[in-house]
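Submission checklist for the structure archive. All mandatory fields must be present; incomplete records are returned to the submitter.

[x] Identifier: LysR family transcriptional regulator
[x] Organism: Vibrio metschnikovii
[x] Residue count: 300
[x] Sequence attached
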Amino acid sequence: MDKLTAAQVFLDVAITQSFTATADRLDISRPMVTRHIETMESWLQTRLLNRTTRKVSLTTAGEQCLEAIKLWVEQAQQLEHQLMDSQSLAGKIRIATSMSFGFAQLIPAVKPFLAKHPQVEIDIDVQDKTADLIAERIDLAIRIAADPDPSLIGRPIAKCDSILVAAPSYLAAHPAITQPSDLTQHACLGYKNFERHIWHLTKDEVLQSVEVSCRLTANEATTLLHAAVHGMGIALQPTYLTSGALAKGEVVSVLADWQPKTMSIYALYPSRRHLSPAVRALIDHLADYFASHDWQDIVL
């Protein structure tokens, strides 16, 4: 049996502490996980894991071998990547991104990349939480943030502008909004990941920060946009998501002269040292794609 694959399975079990969880994550059978672990233990002539009915844990020998096995796997992967011709990129890339960005922008962006590299597979993991890239075996996370996770390597691939929107029905039934401070008297729709909802707006180099009240919050932009369409309040939305609703008249711009803070879109990954050629090529492709397409155009 392939010792490199067996080592990779062992490293995954060391993270999950479960043969079943590793089987699910690696898309192999549980008996195959067992065979890979037996291969490693036979090869090293020592027991690497303690098995109980509740969990799996490293033996003392397993703990001693863990870093050396991890280094060996990384070196083997690096050698494979160095020998791989860029014109024959292959392998699976797991991407974590938000539902709104994945739906609205990532799918059209990766379509030409897959067409150019038929040996590459892409698995998109849609999640509106901060993923543990190592534990979840994510190769690349696409995140919109002002300050990305400092433990990760990040490359900005685009800028993300935002806009305040509300349904005409909501605005017709509530006091006029002529300046940012008026927002404090309105129902606003916020992201639940923030304890305080402060919107930063700029006009002619003048910055105003307004703490708004959000009775309705969600962890995902599309949900908040739909709430705005239904007249439930004012939403701070990425422009890439609002074009359709604006064009249909479902929402209109609020305080159009005031610009919300521009965020950066980052491609984040755990380690620069062992980034595969396919992942490197995808990052370059995404940066080029967003630089050359009018993907944030909005209709006012």
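[x] Structure attached
Curator remark: The first strand starts at residue 49 and ends at 51. DSSP finds nine helices and 15 strands in the chain.
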